[in-house]
Amino acid sequence: MLSDTVNTYLSVRRAVGFKLKTIEKYLASYASFAAARGDLRVVSKTALEWAALGASKTQRANRLNVLIRFARFARAEDSGHEIPPESGFCGYWPRRSPYLFTDDEVRRLIFHAGRLGPPGALRPYTYSTLFGLLASTGLRISEALSLHLHDVTSEGLVIRETKSARAASSGFMRQLPWPSNITFNGGVSSPVATSASLSHVEGASWGTPLRPTPSKRFSKPPAFNANPMVPNLGCTI
């Protein structure tokens, strides 16, 4: 059964760190499509017919490439599987040109994020800190959202959730050292920000809370700068 081969393929690749969420949907769809035609193995004609159901040229090419990789895996165990032709569809992934925020735009973004509602909530602190962290460190959004309290150390931030799932599954991590204008007080057991200088360019910084104190989790941190547009030259953690 093709569905059994699909499950084996997914299990093997996930064992080395691949997530394959979209690929799992593609292969499940193809297995059902092929089963309806009585195929017990990968058949090139059926594969091309299924790939042709894609809504765009790029999607059709991507669907076919997924099947080609799967067919190569399946054929290693059973030579009855056919490998679809790579020239079946031509497509490419269009890349959007990245938008680079100016220093002023980053400041205004953090400024307005710090004024989000509702009143008294952690939401403005959360988003102003997140945007400041991304701008000042260059972290990927997935890396920033995966940070935990124990990742804040006296040496810097420990990044465990990397872009490569394979690297993460092997225990690989990297450390982002603190800038020279940041001091660390109180040890790793209580990393609490009283003020922070988050800047993506040298000499440009603004005050924003990194993390409220545990005892005042639902109130404004004591050293929160009421005006994020006012530069803050240091950070105490």
Summarize this entry quickly:
The protein has helices at residues 2-15, 21-36, 44-51, 57-75, 103-113, 123-137, 141-145, 165-169, and strands at 156-159, 174-177, 182-183, 235-236. The protein contains eight helices and four strands; from the N terminus they run αααααααβαβββ. The chain is 39% helix and 5% strand.
Structural class: mainly alpha
Q: Order of helices and strands, N to C?
A: HHHHHHHEHEEE
Strand order of the largest sheet: 1-2
Helical coverage, percent range: 25-40%
Outline, from the CA principal axes?
A: elongated
> Any idea how many domains?
2
The parts where pLDDT drops under 50 for at least 5 residues are 186-237
How much of the residues is beta strand, in percent? Answer: 5-15%
The number of E-state strands comes to 4
Rg (C-alpha, Å): 25 Å
pLDDT averaged residue by residue: 75
The termini sit apart by 58 Å
Q: Tell me the quaternary state.
A: single chain
Individual helix count: 8
For the biggest sheet, the summary is: 2 strands, antiparallel
